[in-house]
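2024-03-11 09:14:02 DEBUG pipeline.ingest accepted 1 chain
2024-03-11 09:14:02 DEBUG pipeline.ingest length=205
2024-03-11 09:14:03 DEBUG pipeline.predict start
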Amino acid sequence: MFERVRNMDRAFQAMRLIMLVVIVGCLIVTVYAIYSNQQLSASAQDRVYVLHNGKAAEVFAASRRENIEVEARDHVHRFHELFFSLDPDEKAIAANIKKALYLSDATAKKQYDDLVETGYIAGIISGNVSQEITIDSVQVVTAAEPFAFRCYATIRIIRSTSMVTRNLVTQGYLRSMARTDHNPHGFLIEKWETLDNRDIKIEER
C-alpha cells in the first residue's frame, strides 16, 4: 500500500519536473522569437525596395552624414554638367540653365547673364557650336558648413572647322537646404566663381 503511494508520489514529482521543463522551454522559445522579430523589424526598416523596369531593387537607408561628401560632390558635378553642356538649340540651353539655377544662388545667374550679354550664347546657337564638359574631379571640405568645394574639369567647344579644349576650375560653397524635386541633394551653391578657363588645345577638324 505504502509502496504504491510512494510510486504515485514519484510519478507526480516526475510529472511536475517535466511540466516545469516544458514551461521553461516555451518561455525561452517565446523570448527568442520576440527578440528575433524585433531584430528583423529593425533591419527591415533600413531597407527600401524600388521597382525599376519591372524588377525590385533593394536599397539601404543611411543617415545624411554618412553620405554627405558623396552627395555634395554629385551636386557640384550635376550643376556643372547642366550649366556648361550647351547645344545649338535655344530651348535646350534654357531648359538646362533653368535646372542648374535651382542648384545655385544668384552667382550662377549672374555668370549666365554675362554670357548672354557678351553674345556667347547667341554665338553658340548661330554658329551651330556644341559645348561639352568632362568633370575631372570635385573636392569638397565637409569639416564645417558651408562646405567649400573646388571643381576641376575640361570643356570641349566643337565648331564646324575646329575643336577647342579649355581648362576649367571653379570654386564655391555648399549650403544645406530642404530636398525638393528640383534639388534632390538638398544643397545650394553659393559664391560660385571661375578661377581658370583658358584654352589648352586647338585642333583643326
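2024-03-11 09:14:41 DEBUG pipeline.report Residues 88 and 126 are 7 Å apart (CA to CA).
2024-03-11 09:14:41 DEBUG pipeline.predict end
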